[in-house]
Write a structure and sequence with these properties.
The complex is a heterodimer. Chain A is of the alpha/beta class. Chain A has helices spanning 29-40, 75-88, 150-153, 169-178, 198-205, 300-324, and strands spanning 19-25, 45-49, 92-95, 98-102, 108-112, 116-124, 128-130, 146-147, 161-165, 184-188, 210-213, 216-223, 227-234, 240-244, 247-250, 254-256, 286-288. Chain A is 22% helix and 26% strand. In chain A, helix 1 (29-40) packs parallel to helix 2 and helix 4 runs parallel beside helix 5. In chain B, strand 7 (187-190) and strand 8 (194-197) form a beta hairpin. The chains are: A alpha/beta, B alpha/beta. Bound molecules: flavin-adenine dinucleotide. Flavin-adenine dinucleotide (FAD) binds next to helix 1, strand 2, helix 4 and helix 6 of chain A.
Chain lengths: 325, 214
């Protein structure tokens, strides 16, 4: 059966309304949940997403640890459902790149490539993007064997030997998915142990065509036109090795999407937004939720919790604002 | 139930109602070349056109109707041309499924509404291009970012008659993907020589386009 993904609100939307109670930046699980809550609070809500609704979660083949779906659910389907739910409660969605934000004044403004919107409160839910390795060969071979998206690119590596960098939950989970296509995977992990959920570790260890290089540092990605090998260093012995492979999938953590806010909001040293227990940032009326903020567990389950809380805090803030006026 | 679920069908019916112009979809089908892909594409397009009188579908046989194949410069089936009353250079090769169904709807919407949302700067710069240029973008149905790359390509084709915007589903055309060394999507190729990977915002995309031409 063909799966037809359709975004009912998309690139061609032009909104007449410029002023909102709340603007939510980012349409991943966090932003969508926040929108459900602000929508139900009858706050005029706009969600601005610069890519595709669903965020990082939508490119995950199967999400098994989000409650309510005992057989797991595809990331696409889960976020598509969240999107329908948010639309049901009245939030507007616009797909556009955010150019500029002014957050310091009482009325906040968000400028996209073609429009400008205003609101009294902002929820930042811009999530994070895959981190790069910053090693020789990575940039040269990006798109020539180096990839950051397994669901997008797996078919190009059919029956090939590949390496997955990072043996955290993402790396192992995406590795299990890649095994449906590739011949073998070498997992390269900097730490002396895997950090992935135990259940994922057990599953991957049962597979025959996998090999683990724990406590190994990736030094370079090599090749001519496309990737042909990687060079690793054993951090214990210092031994260097060239491993022939034709693809490298990188899952070494996340970098926050906070470029727009770096001059106005307090960030931690890695660039994640610092928020208090009500998810308030250093700026009045600006809240941060989900993967974009400083926190210790970045998952869909924690993202939706953040979304609900940020919406509640924004609502409380708007009520106080009204009392003052 | 058809391929388009009843909820989406209902939404699309309303959506298409607001169209200013009828949309003509020319679809090049084949029973010999890529028959399975063709069959799926035909089913999707048939269902779409039955949703609204604003969507007209015309099916051509890739093997037999050589005049049309030549006129529209069709490389291979399944191929979908989306146009108003004339060819504006929009091509989609492959099954418009997964996330690529959105690409199809977006392009139909653009033609049906007869307008697009794009910044004045991008509109101005891209409408100035006087030479013929073909932009190809390779996508896969499971790539959530790809519709965005496809959208800009189709928008530019819409703005400027000299620009041809071709979207290709990479999995279904492995030889073409190999020829253009596609190992990640989206991958954009300008005039078959200048290429770049990933999502660029509209302004930067136009810069790359100008670079690719010169
Ligand atoms: C490979 C992988 C596998 C994973 N597997 C699981 C799993 O099995 N279970 C689980 O619970 N979690 C999983 N996660 C984590 C989960 O995907 C994230 O925790 C979750 O998506 C975070 O949601 P978010 O809305 O905070 O951020 P995101 O999902 O990152 O969404 C942020 C959105 O904001 C948009 N955006 C960014 N900047 C702007 C801007 N300036 N303006 C407008 N929009 C902007 C982005 O395009 C994006 O759509 C996985 C993550 C990865 C990478």
């Amino acid at each position: 059966m063909l799966d037809l993904k359709f975004q009912s609100e998309g690139y061609n939307t032009k909104l007449e309304e410029r002023n909102y109670d709340v603007i939510i930046l980012g349409g991943g699980p966090t932003g969508l949940t926040a929108g459900i809550y602000t929508g139900r609070a009858l706050l005029k809500t706009l969600i601005i997403e610069e890519n595709m609704i669903g965020g990082e979660a939508s490119s995950t083949e199967l999400i098994e640890n989000y409650p309510g779906f005992p057989d797991g659910i595809s990331g696409m389907e889960l976020t598509e459902r969240m999107k329908k739910q948010v639309e049901k409660f009245g939030a507007k969605i616009v797909i556009n790149h955010t150019d500029k934000v002014v957050l310091t004044s009482k009325i906040k403004s968000v400028k996209t490539d073609s429009e400008e919107f205003q609101s009294k409160a902002i929820i930042i839910a811009t999530g994070s993007s895959p981190k790069s390795l910053n090693i020789p060969g990575e940039r040269t071979f990006k798109g020539r064997g180096v990839s950051y998206c397994a669901t997008c690119d797996a078919p190009f590596f059919k029956s090939k030997d590949i390496a997955v960098i990072g043996a955290g939950s993402s790396g192992i989970q995406e590795g299990l998915f890649l095994l449906e296509y590739v011949k073998s995977i070498k997992f390269i992990e900097f730490l002396p142990y895997m950090t992935a959920e135990k259940i994922l570790q057990e599953r991957i260890k049962k597979r025959e065509n996998v090999e683990f290089f724990l406590n190994h540092k990736l030094l370079s990605i090599n090749g001519d036109q496309t990737v042909e090998s990687i060079t690793t260093e054993n951090r214990g012995t210092g031994e260097k090795r060239d491993i022939p492979i034709s693809g490298v999938f990188v899952f070494v953590g996340l970098k926050p999407n906070t470029e727009l806010f770096k001059d106005s909001i307090e960030l931690d040293k890695e660039g994640f937004i610092v928020a208090d227990e009500h998810l308030r940032t250093s700026l009045e009326g600006v809240f941060a939720a989900g993967d974009v903020r400083k926190k210790i567990l970045r998952q869909v389950a924690t993202a939706v919790g953040d979304g609900a809380l940020a919406a509640f805090s924004a609502k409380t803030y708007l009520e106080r604002l009204k009392l003052k006026d | 139930m058809g391929l388009i679920n009843s909820e989406n069908a209902k939404y699309l019916k309303e959506h298409f109602r607001s169209f200013k112009n009828p949309v003509n979809i020319l679809y090049f089908n084949s029973k010999k070349t890529n028959p399975d892909f063709c069959n799926s594409t035909r089913l999707i397009l048939n269902e779409l056109s039955s949703i609204s009188p604003k969507i007209n579908l015309k099916i051509f046989d890739f093997e037999k109707e050589k005049n049309e194949v030549q006129k529209y410069n069709i490389m291979m089936p399944p191929a979908t041309v989306i146009q108003s009353d004339r060819d504006i250079g929009l091509r989609y090769y492959g099954i418009p499924s997964g996330y690529e169904f959105s690409t199809l709807i977006n392009s139909i919407t653009m033609v049906g509404r007869g307008r697009i949302d794009i910044s004045d700067e991008v509109r101005k710069r891209s409408s100035l291009l006087k030479e013929k240029v073909e932009i190809m973008v390779f996508v896969t149905p499971s790539c959530p970012h790809c519709p965005r790359a496809a959208a800009i390509v189709h928008k530019l084709a819409f703005i400027n008659e000299n620009i041809k915007g071709t979207v290709i589903e990479a999995n279904e055309f492995p030889e073409l993907s190999k020829e253009f060394k596609v190992m990640t999507v989206p991958k954009t190729i300008i005039n078959k020589n200048h290429s770049f990977e990933g999502i660029y915002r509209d302004e930067r995309f136009v810069e790359e386009l100008i670079k690719g031409i010169s």
